[in-house]
Design brief:
alpha/beta; eight-stranded mixed sheet; 50% helix; 10 helices; Spore Coat Polysaccharide Biosynthesis Protein SpsA, Chain A
Length: 307
């Protein structure tokens, strides 16, 4: 081996049986000159993902696996990898080969130059119009609301120095959003751009509802501004309602015109009621997170591992 440091690779996977051998072979081409360990995190797969990982482990003992008791989600799979990795630097990437392994030597080179965090930004020319627009909206909203700037197209394909990983291990948050947590940590950072390849095999596990949930967690995990916005909206509606009351009183006392009845009343009630429900939902989201965090349940449960 030409290098005396250890590179840890984390690969979360959920029902990716047809991609396991391909991602391993692709990785090997770029990390074979390093001391390495590869962690496959089986996020409760129901296919032969774990069996295929075990097959690779028979011929390469540097390949390790952690298998969850059920599906705990991509961010918790990353956490399990960070919790277990022993390398001097830790690289995480997805198992569908949309994160190009050929970028890894360049990431390691930048780390050797002193950067503690080497993140990546996705240049995806193949995504549909709807996904591109919703992605831009999400990053614009979260950057407006959060104190941490997150680049549009930021990916969970990154290299972290072991010092950064140690700091991440101290964070015991239930609702993880690493794309925000890692910039929040600070340290010297640099970003690389990459062109996302099509999935090698299978279908994406991120449905529209999961993306909405992920976006909601990202926004509410890094800002209380939605609560402040709800206060401002409440005061604005109350002020408008007060002006309308003054108007109604004026019409009733000083003119003989009839005050608008059923239609205006129903519109006002529905509008104010709808806004109230939205605000209650925002508050409820924060309270729900506090409720779940207070239970202090583990982020994941390991069914089986070989480390």
């Amino acid at each position: 081996m030409e290098n005396n440091f250890i590179v840890s690779i984390i690969i979360p996977c959920y029902n990716e049986e047809s991609n396991i051998a391909q991602i391993y072979n692709s990785l090997l081409s770029y990390i074979k000159d390093f001391n390495y360990e590869i962690f496959f995190i089986d996020d409760g797969s129901t296919d032969n993902t774990l069996e295929n990982i075990k097959t690779i482990n028979k011929s390469d003992k540097q390949v390790k696996f952690i298998s969850f008791s059920r599906n705990f989600g991509h961010q918790n799979a990353l956490k399990a990898g960070y919790d277990s990795a022993k390398g001097d630097c830790v690289i995480c990437l997805d198992s569908d080969l949309q994160h190009p392994p050929e970028l890894i030597p360049e990431m390691i080179n930048l780390w050797q130059k002193g950067y503690k965090i080497v993140s990546t930004k996705r240049k995806d020319k193949s995504s549909g119009f709807f996904k591109k627009i919703t992605s831009k909206i999400f990053y614009r909203v979260i950057n407006k609301l959060s104190e941490v700037k997150i680049e549009d197209g930021a990916a969970d394909f990154r290299l972290l120095d072991k010092q950064v990983v140690q700091e991440l291990k101290k964070l015991n948050e239930k609702f993880l959003f690493y794309r925000g947590l890692i910039p929040w940590l600070g340290f010297s950072q640099i970003q690389l751009e990459y062109l996302a390849s099509p999935r090698f095999s299978g279908r994406t596990k991120y449905s529209f509802s999961k993306m909405l949930h992920f976006a909601s967690d990202g926004i509410t995990s890094f800002s209380v501004k939605p609560l402040k916005v709800s206060i401002y909206i409440g005061f604005t509606i109350a002020f408008v309602a007060f002006l309308y009351i003054l108007y109604a009183i004026y019409i009733a006392i000083f003119t003989d015109k009839a005050v608008a009845g059923w239609t205006s009343t129903i519109i006002s009630v529905l509008f104010i009621g709808g806004i109230q429900l939205v605000m209650i939902g925002i508050v409820g989201n924060y309270l729900g997170k506090l409720f779940i965090e207070n239970k202090k349940r583990p982020n994941y449960i390991i069914k089986e591992k070989n480390d």
